[in-house]
Write a structure and sequence with these properties.
With about 230 residues, the protein is an all-alpha fold.
């Protein structure tokens, strides 16, 4: 069996029927929705993490058929294996995980897949390196590349490096999709935990053009008076 078949077989042992029925609705897989056609086995994240640990030594060549799987949980398992390689591997393995990830970003195609992997595999790898790739991802026609760009900056935020979060937030502000509005607002909120005045000044400057969802997410930790002021049009 190739790696996709192995992972699918092991994951199916954890599958729950109620999750198999619920997850496609939760992740918007219907016609015209953002994850149209994605398929679910019905496995929850803690169980997928457990499987990923079992296959953490799999080679990148072995992982190729699995990252393109039609099954959501199989792709997530591969991404969690990449996270393990990024956290525990050599610098060469971290670079290989990063390159593999970006080469297959078309299959990192739902918000949970991005959010559980991009900060580590992309963001942490880029610490101390050029961040230009994030601006190219932000300009991509792919919604998921755009989300990878902003969510990867969580690794920078944790190091109190906030410039890219704010630059990408401004760049992505006109984006039409609420999944980007939510992601940008989330990263701005995280940046605000490190420098609240900088967040307040940024939001005050852009509040008239910032999508409402992005704005609400960004100012969630402000007091009621500040939120009321910043939400005014």
């Amino acid at each position: 069996m190739n790696m996709e078949e192995q992972l699918m077989t092991v994951l199916q042992a954890y599958a729950k029927e109620e999750k198999r029925l619920h997850l496609p609705r939760f992740f918007k897989t219907g016609k015209g929705e953002y994850a149209e056609g994605d398929r679910f086995l019905g496995v929850v994240v803690p169980d997928i993490r457990a499987v990923a640990k079992r296959y953490g030594k799999a080679s990148f060549e072995e992982l190729k058929p699995a990252i393109v799987s039609k099954w959501h949980e199989v792709r997530l398992c591969v991404l969690l294996i990449l996270v393990l390689k990024s956290r525990q591997g050599t610098e060469e393995e971290r670079e290989d995980a990063y390159s593999f990830y970006l080469a297959h970003s078309a299959y990192v195609n739902n918000w949970d897949l991005v959010d559980l992997s991009a900060p580590t595999v992309v963001g942490e790898y880029l610490l101390g390196k050029s961040h230009e790739v994030l601006y190219r991802l932000a300009e991509s026609a792919s919604l998921w590349d755009n989300r990878i760009a902003i969510v990867s900056t969580y690794a920078f935020i944790q190091k109190h490096e906030l410039d890219d979060t704010y630059a990408l937030a401004a760049k992505l502000m006109p984006h039409p999709h609420d999944l980007i509005h939510k992601a940008v607002g989330w990263m701005l909120r995280e940046a605000g935990k490190r420098d609240v005045q900088r967040l307040f000044s940024f939001v005050e400057r852009y509040r008239h053009e910032m999508p409402r969802t992005m704005l609400r997410y960004a100012i969630e930790k402000f007091d009621e008076g500040q939120r009321s002021y910043l939400m005014r049009r």
